[in-house]
Design goal:
It is built from 1 helix and 2 strands. It is an alpha+beta fold and 88 residues long. The protein has one domain. It has a two-stranded antiparallel ribbon. It is rod-shaped. The N and C termini lie far apart (106 Å). The mean pLDDT is 90.
């Protein structure tokens, strides 16, 4: 029994016992560690992407503000050009 691993699952219908060899125990352990690592790395990657989205969104707001400012300036200059054209 030294190289065996017992898993017991109990529910309302009773208990079930599963015996796993030591190799299977390591496979389950490595798979669980892999899943945990994947979740941790995924959460870090998602937080990094959220930071990047916030940075891009703030740059977008700055560019939109500059666009509105340039649009007003362009309209003003077009009016001045129209006035100068009528003068000539």
């Amino acid at each position: 029994m030294k190289n065996r691993f017992t898993i017991t699952i109990t529910d309302i219908y009773g208990s079930k016992h599963y015996l796993l060899h030591q190799v299977m125990k390591r496979i389950v352990l490595y798979f669980t560690l892999f899943i945990v690592l994947l979740i941790i790395l995924g959460s870090f990657f998602i937080s990094f992407l959220m930071y990047e989205v916030d940075a891009v969104q703030s740059k977008k707001e700055i560019v939109e503000h500059e666009y509105v400012k340039l649009k007003k300036s362009n309209t003003k200059l077009e009016k001045e050009i129209g006035v100068k054209t009528k003068e000539y």
